[in-house]
# Entry
Amino acid sequence: MKVSFISPEITDGHLKSVVVLPVFKKAELSASYKAYDKLSGMQISASAKAGGVDGSAGKDFQILGPKGTKTNRIFVTGCGGLDGFDSENFGARVVKTLLMSGETTLVLQMDGFDFTPVDAARAALGAVLASYRFDKYRTKLPASKKPSLKNIKIAVENPAKARAAYKNFYGPVAEGTLLARDLVMEPANKLYPKSYAARIKKMESLGLKVEILGEKRMKALGMGALLGVGLGSPRESQLVIMKWNGGKKGDQPVCLVGKGVTFDTGGISLKPGAGMWDMKGDMGGSAAVVGAMHAIASRNAKANVIGIVGLVENMPDGLAQNPGDIVTSMSGQTIEVQNTDAEGRLVLCDALWYAKEKYNPKAMVNLATLTGAILMALGHEYAGVFSNSDEIAGQLDKAAANSSEKVWRMPLDPAFDKLIDSPNADMKNIGGRLAGSITAAQFLQRFVGDVPWAHIDIAGTAWKASSKDPREPAWATGYGARLMNRWVADNFEG
Ligand code: BES
Ligand code: MN
Ligand code: ZN
# Structure
């Protein structure tokens, strides 16, 4: 979707397009509404009157081929009261409605109503998020089922300022989120550790430095926990490091770490077949990190940020690890692998330890589709946050409020930590039936030392079967890219 910002006067930019005119309860009509109404010989106000359109949310109507204008279609949409107006939702809702309309250009009239340049940029973000589709493997889709909209023009006072807000922040957020969605949507025969790493490598064009460690290098580093997960797969595990040095030279970086299990069969502790296809999305944490790094680099963020993703495929095989195996992590701590399906923590523990040792970060956040238990606790609405730092937990709360990716803090407690003690090794990788998300977080905490850190369990938010939010597609949400970009922007820049 091509986004541009134009001034609100009716010009050639409006030719052959669908023009969207918002109306609000108890508010004056905009200048553009009045201008179109006049051009059409008062056709718009006559329709509005006939339909009882009073600005109430959801009271919409369309006029096809309005008289007196060079516009194809006018879409008048009731937006409710001005108080609760959310421009992102507005942009998204309108695009959801008109995506397949047959129109190729949409002009969103955002003149009047005290709309700011940031409102306009956020409407554009909502519009782009709502336009997302993953159709690349659908070869027989009829044209009528393909999106027709190609251009979105936001008509607003001071388009230059809106353009700058979009270019410097909201555009990168949109692109980073769409990238994360694309990665989560890709099936595991297309996106596996090496092809994934190659795709990340291409992001060097944004000014990132990308380093890829294969199994040989990881073995030399002692990453026995991560490597154990990949033993059953013929596909080589990869650790990919993305470096963005936009801050002061020598300033301690922030590290973002992601679980990138490109497919999780469970391994020898095999998962049931029904629904197993969803496990192509078990790299959602890594996708959030890659999407965030994309956004951070695209907007030239003034911070030093390191993204690290552990890319592994968890398969059953003659060479796969067995329940009861004991592996030695890079930290030197040994782990009894009682369940090969609790593999995410095994991948992350080496990636976290590596991040801590190599980069001495001032703060570290990891994201992972780690436990089914977080779905039982928080459903699809909130991601679970576990943190050893009240400061970081507070920052994440704020970033969530500012990015509409919601988080809910969960406890860490030494009392839970005992549940992962093992008689045979330093710890085991499962904690029993209760508090499954917490014992997973306790496990990770053993690998972060005293670095201020948070773990975000996104097993419930990385994908959902359907969503009422017009910004979200049917499956992969891209959750986390936006949250992490916001967290970095609000706390580590300037
Ligand atoms: N990738 C899964 C967690 C998951 C479940 C993500 C559902 C998204 C939706 C993870 O690797 C896993 O299998 N966890 C186990 C842990 C258990 C064996 C301790 C789980 O949650 O059942
Ligand atoms: Mn698993
Ligand atoms: Zn998993």
About this structure: The chain has a mean pLDDT of 97.
